[in-house]
Amino acid sequence: MLGSQRRGLGTRRLLLSLLLLAVWEAGSGQVHYSVAEESKHGTFVGRIAQDLGLELAELVPRLFRVASKGRGDLLEVNLQNGILFVNSRIDREELCGRSAECSIHLEVIVDRPLQVFHVEVEVKDINDNPPVFSLREQKLLISESKQPDSHFPLEGASDADIGENALLTYRLSKNEYFSLELPTHSKQTKRLSLTLKKYLDREKTPELNLLLTAADGGKPELTGTLQLFVQVLDINDNDPEFEQSEYKVRLMENAAKETFVIKLNATDRDEGGNGEVTYSLMSIKPNGKLLFTLDENNGEVRVNGILDYEENKFYEIEVQATDKGNPPMAGHCTVWVEILDANDNAPEVTVTSLSLPVREDTQPSTVIALISVSDQDSGANGQVTCSLTPHVPFKLVSTFKNYYSLVLDSALDRESVADYALVVTARDAGSPSLSATASVSVEVADVNDNAPAFAQPEYTVFVKENNPPGCHIFTVSARDADAQENALVSYSLVERRVGERALSSYVSVHAESGKVYALQPLDHEELELLQFQVSARDAGVPPLGSNVTLQVFVLDENDNAPALLPRPGAGGGGGGGGGAVSELVSRSVGAGHVVAKVRAVDADSGYNAWLSYELQPAAGGARSPFRVALYTGEISTTRTLDEADSPRQRLLVLVKDHGEPALTATATVLLSLVESGQAPKASSRVLAGAAGAETALLDVNVYLIIAICAVSSLLVLTLLLYTALRCSAPPAEGACAPGKPTLVCSSAVGSWSYSQQRRQRVCSGEGPPPPPPPPKTDLMAFSPCLPQSGEDCSNPSGEVSH
């Protein structure tokens, strides 16, 4: 009963220990497996997914992957069952040499969220390497005078395995003269040697052939052999002897060639040639390379190659001293050279698992990449610290020994910085310290956070009327600071009504180029200003947009000829229609008397609507007693009429505007000359009114001149200000042609206009724009219009409202 309780208590303690061990391993974040070297492909190593607490279903979605620095693809994971298996041949001696411990360190990485696990797979040694002697055969020169129990050192075999598999035993072929003395493993002060059991007799046995066999402790055991040729020499019975059997020397790695190591000294008690000693190298372990030289005369050992602490930390040099006796005798010693570490290896930086590109709306603390550092040196020379380029929105976070995560530290803005060239610097603690760098290029992916923007909120465009349909009048352009499809801008009209019609019936905009086209000929007399908006939107998700306003001024062209107006209240003796005016004129009127007036209007504006009147020469070249005022159209006498003048006068008045080219109309005026008593009263009233008008004109001219000067000064100031503003604004795109905006003012006493011709960008055909005409400034005054026989003067001749 008591024994049963004790067994139960022991079981609970064992379970508790196993539980604590599992908790400790989980906390350390490391899983340990073991596998024998030379295992076949597919050999089971461990259920890595289960041991790491991962579900099989999430291995592929979370991008389960295994990385092993410098180990290639020795191990692999089956993502279907989560089993770690052997993928290719594992040679423990190739991986770790003669190191007592040999492990493969794996990094298991999964995403969403990013996790890193460290797995250690111990590689177990198997007995796959036989003992190997450095030589196939060895020749021994032994004097017959040697005493029994004399020892003759032999070079032992080496086995690349470790542990029991490298524990060597030796056997000597059966003979009557020699036995084998095995080395002890305490301090290696006793070496493998032959022991003479009895005196040699050269005359009886001049030489011996022996076979030395080395067997390891593996199961089954493996063996290696060395052929020994023993030559029995005649008496030279003293061997050269070194002052000590072993020498120890410390030497810095990377020592220069010919660097002095040690001077050996061996003495021989014989005299003459039997006492003269020469030195030779028997072997250099572990790799047999001739990294040292030995002067055969003075025994000096010097460096002959490159000593690398990271390759080998110790060298064993076997030296033989031979006298010049006949036969010669030899003595042996061992020189142990310890290599001291120097800081001759810069750190190495490896960047893995880059998550690129990085969206500009990525949240801080997001892991961008994993970085590992290493240094082949030891001690302080192998202690590495890692740093990052300053003044960047990233930082390094240490996650494990010599492992770092590159983490986003602050918000990104692609429009400010589109990519970052980061430099990771690893520096060791040696003196002087060495460093290495690795460049990481981080591209910032665009997010649609910028709307298209126009250079200015409003553009003014000038277009001549009567443009061809489909004429290009302007190009709008918006810039989007984003990239790719987020910066792909398309244009469209902001639809609205223009009077009774839709805006899209007047203009259109090309969705890609932003070119604005007039779909139909524009008529200045119908539409002087067309104002609308163009929208620019990008192709992002969701799309962003903005609007710009276009003011299209339709410039007038001389496309309307002057139109003659009938005389208001025509009756009595004169009646006019269809361009003919009839009047009765008394022969008694004096020179300068107004007898009739031609009225005409022009639907155009500015210079195109400014009319002038010319009297056509009479048939036969006869000089007419009448003239017409240039700008008012009033017909007056040039002299006193007499009996010689024809009673019926037919006058042709040419009405012409100032357009380019000018358009004209012709008015016919029929004048009947009558005696003064025959003139109707209405004609008397007209003549009286004309006389009164001439008198009133003298009084009004002074005020008109003052008014013209004041208004002209104000207008010039306004035009200068407007010109300065236009010059400061960017030019509007479109074809170019001169425009002639004209300001026309009217009053009850006359009309005047001020025209400033200047070049504007307007619609025209293909090719370069024509040169602008020289600017001109015209101040025009028209004679006042006074009512005659009840005429309406609200719109005097040549007046056009703009």
Automatic annotation (TrEMBL):
Tell me which positions the record assigns to the signal sequence. 1-29
- InterPro entries listed in its UniProt record: Cadherin-like_dom (IPR002126), Cadherin-like_sf (IPR015919), Cadherin_CS (IPR020894), Cadherin_N (IPR013164), Protocadherin/Cadherin-CA (IPR050174)
Cellular component annotations (GO), alphabetically ordered: plasma membrane
Q: Return the Pro residues bias intervals.
A: 767-776
A GO MF annotation of the entry reads: calcium ion binding
**What parts of the sequence cross the membrane?**
702-722
The protein here is known as Protocadherin alpha-11-like
User: Which residues lie within the region annotated Disordered?
Assistant: 757-802
Alphabetized, the UniProt keywords read: Calcium, Cell adhesion, Cell membrane, Glycoprotein, Membrane, Repeat, Signal, Transmembrane, Transmembrane helix
Q: Which GO terms describe its biological process?
A: homophilic cell adhesion via plasma membrane adhesion molecules
* Annotated membrane topology: Single-pass type I membrane protein
Biased segments, Polar residues type: 791-802
- A Pfam cross-reference name: Cadherin
**Organism per entry:** Neomonachus schauinslandi
Q: What is its main location?
A: membrane
The compartments listed are: Cell membrane
Start and end of every Cadherin domain?
A: 28-133, 134-242, 243-349, 350-454, 455-564, 585-682
Q: Which SUPFAM superfamilies match?
A: Cadherin-like
